[in-house]
Amino acid sequence: MEREFKWQIADPSDFDRIAQSDTVKPLVQSTGTTEMEAIYYDTFDGQIAKARGGLRLRREDGECVVCLKLSPQEGFDGAFKAREEYECYAPDVRSGMLNLPSVGAPQEFCDEILKSDLVELGRTIFTRRTFLLAFQGCTCELAFDTGKITHRGRVRPICEMELELKSGNEDDFNTLALDLQKKFSLQPEPLTKLMRMLKL
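User: That's the sequence. What structure does it adopt?
Assistant: Structure tokens below.
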């Protein structure tokens, strides 16, 4: 289960201010930067959308990862998301769908999707800066994303911050997220990248 908070950021210059703050800097265990490009898919009749899910093939510094997300839950004024998440390394989306049941994805759902042709919905291209944080009883990843969403020739910028729980206590994770939201007056981002793509 993926658990994360997502916020809108007005300007990329705010990233450094947050990362170097007294709230975040003492918690940092490691940092990284990853170039990402994701292609989102659904069946012609929108079976994945009807399940309130998302399917993508994402290239992360040249490696291909197929990811299926299902059953979203929301809270904390729209900033919080919890979803079933299944992913595996695969060269293309259909190969990934064949392998996802081995990592826990619903076999019947994957089989139904594979019976249909998959169509591309759109793409995201962005740079992700990551900071692995240790806070009380949890470990989480703070990520800053800058780039763009494309759909049917239309383009929308990406400038956002995410905090994702990697391990440990969920209450501590929620506490840190809400502290960040309050301290930096963060605006919740209720829409996923896929949802914003489909609104273009």
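The chain has one domain: 2-198.
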